[in-house]
Amino acid sequence: MVSSSFAALVTRLRFRHLRLIDLLARGGNLHRVAAEMNMTQPAASKILQDAEILLGVRLFERTPRAMLPTEIGAFVADYAARTLREADSFADGLDNLKAGGFGALAIGAIMATTPGLLPKAIAELKRRRPLMTIQLLAATSDILLDALERNEISMALGRFTDPSNALAFDLEPLAHEELWIFVAAQHPLAHVTSLTLGETAHMPWVLQQKTSPMRQLIDRAFVEAGVGTLNNLVETTSIFATLHLVREAGMIACLPKSILMEGVGRDTFKRLPIELPNQLGPLGIITRRGETPSANVADFIDVLHEIAARERQTLLAGF
């Protein structure tokens, strides 16, 4: 049975309410929000008042410097932002469909999928549906999970960062990655045959941010090696920046084998003889828990399965 409060929201809550709440939560200035919405400040104030009356709560605290969201206001603002993003995606997809396309697909992927699985899957999906618009967010798993939770993307290729992720998301494993610690070919360590992780602790490293699964694994390995926290460090989520700093600044880094194979084969980089005591969890397809995927998401998942199966067969044929 639909509650009366829900019926009231559906009947009376408008996109202008949501847009004003979203803008005000991000900016805190009603005058600027009114200007952005092409209306007078009294008109904007009236829309906010209408929303607060409809919801039965105060959404913002009026202070001399800014309007700050209350606890409930922050909750409503988060809903407003998600709803507006979904509406924008819906409008883009509708325009695409009306023009004879196949709508839009917003996906996220960690960098380890860049050299193989992901581009092949996108190319195959575009072959089947050339007019589909594909939006790709390339980031670390923690960022992708946040984006997935906020409905900014429909699915992700990544991994869980914490066991509690299973409460909000489903993960279907596709592959396991081997991590390599490496340097540039001209680095003093490039040709050593025996090396421990602890012996590199005083040297410059380039790694992902602390919240990424790969960084957490490296930090744990240094702790287990009795070293503690790295001090000589650059943090970045960019593969390009990582490879450039390794090559040009003599830094040490850790990346998936799939990214480094070509560079090692060309003698641009050298893998160091260091085996990490632990490896990352499985790389997989992550979706919001219990949510039925759209047709475009389901098609892309099917393509990922096909390509992952082909790559496994190719790997087995090489033995």
TrEMBL record:
GO terms for molecular function: DNA binding; DNA-binding transcription factor activity. Coiled coil: none annotated. Residues 13-70 form the HTH lysR-type domain. Keywords: DNA-binding, Transcription, Transcription regulation. Gene3D superfamilies: 3.40.190.290, Winged helix-like DNA-binding domain superfamily/Winged helix DNA-binding domain. One of its GO terms (cellular component) is cytosol. The keyword DNA-binding applies. PROSITE patterns: HTH_LYSR. PANTHER family: HTH-TYPE TRANSCRIPTIONAL REGULATOR YBHD, NITROGEN ASSIMILATION TRANSCRIPTIONAL ACTIVATOR-RELATED. Belongs to the LysR transcriptional regulatory family. This is Transcriptional regulator.
